[in-house]
Each structure stands twice: as C-alpha cells, then as structure tokens.
Design goal:
Layout (H helix, E strand, L loop, with lengths): L6 H19 L2 H25 L8 E3 L2 E3 L5 E3 L4 E5 L13 E5 L19 E7 L1 H4 L9 H11 L4 E7 L5 H10 L8 E6 L9 H5 L6 H6 L1 H25 L6 H20 L2 E6 L13 H13 L3 E4 L13 E3 L2 E4 L1 H21 L5
Parallel strand pairs: 6-7, 6-8, 8-9, 9-10
Antiparallel strand pairs: 1-4, 2-3, 4-5, 11-12
Helix pairs in contact: 2-8, 4-11, 5-9
C-alpha cells in the first residue's frame, strides 16, 4: 500500500482539513473551546479505558527451540523447553508469571520419552499435526495426545499415544515427518489432525490479532486501540472467513498440496499395516451460530471418503459451545485443556467402540 493511502495518513489529512474549516467558520473563542473540550474528552476516555482494562496492547510470547530435521521438516531441540507467556491469567490455568511450560523429550517431540521398540502387548497411537496437536498454551498432560491416552487408559486400554505435533507445519511437511520418522515407532494407528490453515490459508491468530491502521499510536493509546478494534472487528471476521474459503477451491495450490500429502500418508500407512484416521479440528469461532466453514469440512470429508480414509469431524465434540470459551486465551485461539479433552473423548469413543466390536481370540 502506498504511504499516501495508509489509514493514518488519510485520517490525519482529513483531521487537518476539518480543523482548517472550523478555524474559518467558527469564532475564535468557540474554536478554542471546541479544541480544549475535545482534548479533555480524549484524556478522560484514555483514563477510563486504562482503568477498565480496555484496549490494552497485549502480546503473547512463544519460546520454542527449533531445529531443521530430516528433509528440512522443522522440529524441536531434544531436551528443550516450550514456554508460552500470556499477559494475564483470567482462567487461573497458567503458572507463575502467567506461563505454560512444556517439555521436549530426547527424541525432539513433546511428551514423555518412548523408545522406538514397542512394549509387548501395548498398543501405540501416533498423532501428527501442527500447533493444535503439539498443544500450544496447555500443559504437557493436557495436550490432545496426552488427553487421548488418558481417555483410553481410563477405559482400560493398554496404549501409548505419541505426540508428533510441530507448530507451523502443513500437511506435506507432516507427511514427510511420517515417512522419515513416525513410522519408525511402529504405530498401530496414525491420526493426522488437520486444521483449515493446512491449505496454506494463514493462521487464525495472525488474522484476528493484527491491527489494520494506526499501529504506532495504538501501542501507546488504549482508547485508540479499543476504538480501532471495535471498528475493525467486522472487517477482520469477513477476512477470516473469506481467506479460509478461498483456500479450498479446486484450483487452490494449498488444497492440491494437502490432498497430495494425504494420499502419501494413506499409501505409507497402508504399506505398514497401520490404521489411518484424519481428524479435523474446527475453527473455534461461531460454533453455535451459523458456523461459516461447514462447506469446507464437507470438502475435506468428501476427499477422505473418496480415498478410503477414515474421517472424524471434531466439531461434534463442541456441541453447545460458541468458541471463545475453548480458547487458551483471548489473544490465543488455540484450543485450551477443555477443548482437547472433549476432542480426545470423541476420538477415544470411536477407537474404543472398534476395540469392543473386534472379535477376541480364544
């Protein structure tokens, strides 16, 4: 965008024009009364916003020790720590300094260390995905893989669930990770957790938390930031919907790459005799009032069915929820511990139903 067309420049020019017009149209005493009154109103408005906690320019800080793994697939430094720091702790979930700390095991993945060799008689499930699988913003025991293991264990299953989630990866990268690393752990079941940004549509956080104008002024003024957020919210929501929808057209490069990657995953797991499940995590937005991405869920489901891939839509786990109550934080739309537990219960119920239906040998 040209510097002359920036919102701050346009608004500034309009303000100067208004002041010039008022200068020539009003008596000087009325002009200065208007200026002083406006300044007082701005000061009072700023004080009220600060006092009520409105319009604060808060940030979420993510600290991850990343490395480039085989074939350039990103991963984590073995033995490192994940640290997510939030500006406040409204749910009382975060630890000291509003932090959530996660542990990366000696193999470079989140969760407890598990050797390549399986324990005889113990089932093994591998979950692959991005930050939703990794578990940004939740403790080690509350990630989706850990929650799934807890659900299955509580039901009496002897099973290990391994977390191969890596934030900011897409389905093609996850397919490479599966081929190069995950299958080496000899899983019985592979669950690929997909999200709508896997078709390279950009992330929800990047869209919803990015101000559109007056960025410098918004860093200092709670009033300007609060007004800007109120004005921009409808625009941002429309952009969020349109960006995700445009990523799933037949000619979309991201959707083509995602389909190709899922075929690779299907072929690789079939060759190894693994059961494959694709689990779609919904955007945690307007779940109870005209969810705008239903068609995209149907598109992904139809593709999986055409390839003979088992599919589960995790939106069914969030009946009665609107979305924000499932977020880690108001500035972080990743699923919180409640969302992961509900998603795990849905996947776990499907797996346990199949386990109970399977014939037992005498």
């Amino acid at each position: 965008m040209s510097a002359l067309l920036r919102p701050s420049v346009i608004t500034g020019a309009a303000l100067v024009l208004v002041l010039v017009v008022l200068w020539f149209r009003l008596r000087r005493d009325l002009f200065w009364v208007l200026i002083v009154t406006s300044l007082v109103a701005l000061v009072v408005g700023e004080a009220l916003c600060r006092g009520l906690g409105l319009g604060a320019v808060d940030r979420v800080e993510w600290s991850e020790s990343r490395v480039s793994g085989e074939s350039g697939v990103p991963g984590y430094e073995p033995g490192s720590t994940l640290v997510y720091t939030y500006p406040d702790n409204p749910r009382g979930y975060f630890g000291e300094q509003n932090r959530v700390v996660g542990a990366i095991n000696s193999h470079g993945f989140r969760g407890p260390y598990r050797p390549l060799e399986r324990t005889p008689g113990t089932g093994r499930i591998a979950l692959i995905g991005d930050s939703f699988t990794l578990g940004i913003g939740v403790r080690d025991e509350d990630t989706l893989p850990a929650s799934l293991e807890a659900v299955l264990t509580e039901a009496g299953a002897d099973v290990e669930v391994l977390n191969f989630g890596v934030s900011d990866t897409d389905t093609p990268q996850q397919a490479t990770l599966l081929e190069n690393t995950v299958l080496g752990y000899d899983p019985d079941i592979v669950v690929v957790v997909v999200f709508l940004n896997d078709a390279r549509s950009g992330g929800t956080i990047a869209i919803m938390n990015s101000p559109r104008g007056f960025n410098r002024l918004r860093r200092f003024s709670h009033l300007v930031n609060a007004l800007g957020d109120a004005i921009e919210r409808p625009v941002v929501h429309r952009e969020l919907v349109e960006r995700y929808r445009s990523a799933y057209t037949d000619s979309s490069a991201g959707w083509l790459a995602m389909r190709s990657a899922l075929r690779r995953v299907s072929e690789a797991t079939s060759e190894r005799g693994c059961r494959l499940i694709v689990a779609l995590y919904p955007v945690l937005y307007r779940l109870d009032e005209g969810y705008p991405f239903e068609r995209l869920h149907d598109t992904i489901r139809a593709f999986c069915e055409s390839q003979g891939i088992e599919f589960v839509d995790l939106r069914a786990a969030f009946e009665g929820c609107s979305g924000p109550e499932l977020w880690v934080h108001r500035l972080d739309q990743h699923p919180n511990e409640v969302a992961h537990r509900r998603a795990a219960e849905l996947i776990g119920a499907m797996l346990l139903e199949d386990m109970l239906a399977a014939p037992t040998s005498d």
